[in-house]
């Protein structure tokens, strides 16, 4: 019997499991450049961290007055991103260790991401995490992306888990808000350090203020064990 019996864990993908934000920025920069926007900066990109790709490109259309349909922008960005993901996606070492620890204990695991199903599949295959994380939900499959709880609630449904028994790992404020709205506990690992004081992160039960540089698989595992004992 595992010390984590009754717990299910749901991982955000980008910026949480894998260091993919640089690839998303580059894909966005390349996409916008094709439509005449050549001043998209990393700071601009940070404002979209944690928001689904579909909602991101819809905002670009409004923000930059683009004539192309959202569907076209989405397809172009996904094409650029997949080219990058297939060759350079990298899992955070401590996150990989955490997934392996949990999988070894038989804890039900899922990925719930704002990325497209194709992007999620490519990243998990590239990093070799696909065999440990077979349950995957994309925001493209639900009505609303984060900060709405839909993607996490669908992950819980597919795992056969009560939302109250789920723990979410998230790097972005919209994701922390989504976990809270879903009635799930949250381990927050802010990707953008300057956002650690965002009110959404205050709803997390465990906040790793220093982000991935401070995240420890063993410490997170011990926290989960204490959470189970506390009920």
UniProtKB/TrEMBL annotation:
Keywords: Hydrolase
Family matches, as CDD domains: HAD_BPGM-like (cd07505)
InterPro entries: HAD-like_sf, HAD-SF_hydro_IA, HAD_sf, PGP-like_dom2
Database matches in Pfam families: Hydrolase
UniProt xrefs under SUPFAM superfamilies: HAD-like (SSF56784)
Keyword Lipid biosynthesis: no
Native source species: Streptomyces plicatus
Record GO terms (molecular function): hydrolase activity
Top-level lineage group: Bacteria
Coiled-coil spans in chain: none
Protein name, per record: HAD family hydrolase
